[in-house]
Amino acid sequence: TGLITLDPGFKNTGSCESAITFLDGEKGILRYRGYAIEELAEKADFLEVAYLLIFGELPNAQQLEKFHSDIKAESHVDEEMKKILDGFPKSAHPMGVLSSLTSALIAFNPSSVNVSSEQAMYHAIVRLLAKFPVLVAWTLRKKMGLPLDYGDDSLGYVENIHKMMFKKPNREYTKNPVAIEALDKLLILHADHEQNCSTSTVRMVGSSHAGLFASISAGISALWGPLHGGANMAVLDMLEAISADGGDTKKYMAKAKDKDDPFRLMGFGHRVYKNFDPRAKIIKKAADEVLSSLGVEDPILEVARGLEREALEDPYFVERKLYPNVDFYSGIIYRALGIPVDMFTVMFALGRLPGWIAQYREMRLNGEPIGRPRQVYVGANHRPFKALSAR
Ligand code: CMC
């Protein structure tokens, strides 16, 4: 084992070279393909950002139009898939449903598995970008007891997603520009974040040349956990609990600092950002704007502001460089948009989809070897077998 360096959690180990996302945790910089996240969130839409991440350049009008129409041409999901969804109880966690449905899609699109030509890769990508939002909408609609619909090809990519999620059977769908813009922005902010846990999972699974859909289904499972994407649900649960407990933020600050208490302040801290999370800055502003334009007054926002204020001044948080991360405020917006708490991580997955796709494609195009870390063995030395009767 002399040559093996132990690095649990890969805190200091680079797993690949990548030209997709640049992140400087000390300075709080995040760029997709060289473009600042602040500018993209302000000026681009989610589909343009998806194209940028996956193919490396912002699309011109013609490229974007072709990309969108290729996606629209694939936006149906086999009717048989509804039977699979039907098999889940309504209480099933949406992340489990989504990862299962994403895996099940392979059975209905077997040609998506072999992506060895650029054309086959493109086709698999477009199919996933088309069908995944339908799965997300179905997951939500099943939960809410609404009929399972398909999209509307005359709409923009995100507007269509919004309609697929919220269209009521007995009511005309009316466009809500504030909600759609907020959703678009949130999806952009979540679209990629270099080699985080779920993205590393996608690349690791894909490194065995498993197909795109299977690799992304694994990424969804990785995102599920509360230390990663599941944090956005955990934040809301925490804010609600504090609010129900009389809004005593100081009490929860003390719990978070107590090393004998497993409670952590959800939505605080980040493996890489040690100064601030640039996404959190954008999202905080967006949350204020969305809530005021939708006329929502959410008492939870007061709790959130209180925690943030206290944490930014508290030596425990300051010394450990624990700042609010992207998920601290995203849940407040999702809630204002009428998305149930246990769908929050699904929304994160929807946003992260282009990033996962871009990383999978880059890994395959670079011809990276199969991922296979080593270990430092600390188990028993060689010992003789003991017969069952002698144990
Ligand atoms: N509340 C209280 N203490 C904390 C927190 C927190 N949220 N986060 C870290 N610490 C403490 C931790 O106890 C440790 O203290 P000590 O040095 O005394 O042992 C120190 O800060 C370093 O923490 P760590 O767990 O070693 O850091 P990490 O890089 O392994 O973990 C993290 C990063 C994000 C998992 C962690 O900060 C955390 O659990 N945060 C809460 C969950 C969360 O918000 N996750 C979302 C991350 S952003 C979205 C995404 O990319 O998925």
Question: Can you put this structure into words, describing what you see?
Answer:
The chain is mostly helical and 391 residues long. The chain folds into two domains: 15-224 and 347-365, Citrate Synthase, domain 1; 231-336, Cytochrome p450-Terp, domain 2 (Orthogonal Bundle), CATH 1.10.230. The chain has helices at 37-43, 46-55, 61-72, 81-86, 94-108, 118-144, 157-166, 177-189, 197-206, 212-224, 231-244, 249-257, 278-293, 299-313, 315-319, 326-336, 344-365, and strands at residues 21-24, 29-32, 35-36. The chain has a three-stranded antiparallel β-sheet with strand order 1-2-3. α6 (118-144) packs antiparallel against α17 (344-365). The chain is globular. The chain starts with 20 loop residues before the first strand and ends in a 26-residue tail after the last helix. The model has no long low-confidence stretch (mean pLDDT 94). The structure holds carboxymethyl coenzyme *A. Carboxymethyl coenzyme *A binds next to α16.
